[in-house]
Amino acid sequence: MTIFVLLGPMVIQSFAQDTSPSPSPSPIPSPTLTPETSPTPLVSPSPISPVFTPPESTILNPTPQEVGGQGTAEVPRIDSGNAAWMLICSALVLLMTPGLAFFYGGLVRSRNVLNTMMMSFMTMAIVGVIWILWGYSLAFAPNSIAPGAIPPYETSPILGSLNWAFLRDVAFNQPDPIGYAPTIPHQLFMIYQMMFAIIAPAIISGAIVERVSFKAYFWFIILWSTFIYSPLVHWVWGKGWLETMGVLDFAGGTVIHISSGVSALVAAWVLGARKTYPHQTNAPHNIPYALLGIALLWFGWLGLNGGRALASGELATVAIVATTAAAAAGGLTWSIMEWVLKGKPSTIGIASGFLAGLVSITPAAGYVTPMGALLIGSIACFGCFWAVNWRVKWKFDDSLDTFSIFGVGGTIGTILTGFFATKEVNSAGSDGLLYGNPGLIISQFGGVIATVIFAAVGTLIIWKLLGLVMPLRVKPVAEDEGLDINEHGEEGYGEEFISQLTLGND
Prior knowledge:
about 500 residues, mainly alpha, Ammonium transporter fold, 16 helices, globular, disordered N terminus, disordered C terminus, Ammonium_transpt, transmembrane, transport, ammonia transport
């Protein structure tokens, strides 16, 4: 497996180049700018850039020839409208992690609600620090900067460097020198990407709740974010090998959902099932919490997908419309399937359908039409529905169906992007199979396979190493009593405190 991960970039890239049209030579045009800020043509940006030629407004120290023979160099400028949009999107994406905490927290037993929610909130603390210290640099930093050259950087196809560690040379008043987001401050791009990095490991917790040691989970977040998440980001969005071979992942189908879903599956297998599973059914203790959680997730998801346009304008509109369409289609599909097969549509079912639609549209949001988004949300929801039911029949304890929704939904959405993507929506992307380009399917499959293998093998190694130095599970008695008391010394609803107070009065 390790050999495949190391050699896969060259093999798959070579195969994809032989079977698919070459990507556009300049696939990341400048985001929409106002006439006052730049003379750059009005073209929406894309996060995919097999080959990047920086726009005039982002060239650092250009020669006189590069500025039309003028003797003065053009300084990169920040568009205040785009910056305002990205500030809002950053806040929206951060809100998704508390939304996930409520969604997961409502689905577990009351004795574990705090521990379950704490696992999501802890990622906000841990990743918020390590992303600034080294995570962002490993994901996006080039090996070297060469002002005036085209492209003005040198980078590795496998991993970023530590040149931007501790946010060194990450300016608050200038765009990044690579061209990731040429009209917003570099630190704003960094903080927006931080929100993605926070929610990815939080998703994994849903598969191992009610039994994992909080200490083991704490260290797992640090290791997984560093050695799994940051390299994947570099592969797909940081001028890495998957980006070069033309894989389309608009906002995290591979980077977030497939990686976290597969990692959740491996984690659940390593830790084993809960003591009571499958003999005792653990019903959700607070379904309104779960509904509140999915509402916050949907709201934040508009920033997740809309913000990947990296500017306010046409592409952000395309992404938000597609996100809403797919979520609605997913919720409707799941409810109809439950109605037909089980006789009643459930509230957990419609929430799961919304989530499946949101997950599946994430890689495609900036590349498909509204009708394509409806189809992706519905098809992926169908697949996730059956994955949940198969998981129950196999009696595999993925506690909150993390793999069945995030892993399966992300995989289906990434592959379907290869069918429904069209340059009519985003000229910086690629046409898919339905628009005459079957080669994109090969690229998408290659991205899925590489992500699955890397995430699965890496996660297995991390858990095995942690198991050598600490227990991965809580003790059986702690599992019976609940992890809130045993791991945090608290209860979600004060039941223990109330009982002691009553006994004292007697």
